[in-house]
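USER: Please consider what follows.
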Amino acid sequence: MRRKWVIILLILCSFNLKNTTEAHPHLFIKPSISIVHLDNKRLGLKVLWEWDEWWSMDVINDCDRDHNGIFDHKEIKLVFNDYFKGAEEFDYFTVLKVNKKKQPITVTDFTARIEPNNIVTYSFIIPLNFMFDHQNKSYHFSIAFNDETFYIAFPDKIGINESTKHKKYRNLKTTTVSYYGVKLEFNYTEE
């Protein structure tokens, strides 16, 4: 009887292993972030996604209607509706926590660009769901980018786009999430 259960268990494990090993990403996003002030009382996470050449080619071919290498306002709206809005169902592949409190994922200020190397980038802001504390000015961030379907992969690093000296990102720690995701944790302060 025991042998029968061992065989059944091995068969079930092999099915699960087969599904996992056959799953692989089809698209690749290189993310980077920065903390921005939305108004005097709130912060936001500005996210930049740099897409791979294949997705970029599809977006450019479908949305750069005048073929000038620049997305105008109407074309950006087309990119948003046809190539970005659907990610809302998956919280834009983002899990964001500030001081261990999960933040709701909503997106504002979406824009898209065609870079000189014909790579498409998306830029958008995720407003934080709390008021900025002018006394504290120190926050712990945890930002994960991950697609549980294994369709999109993120590299093992999240860039920080920041050039101002009064904002500090300290104790940066990057870890892998699931198979193809990445998480960045850091302490953020303003001086």
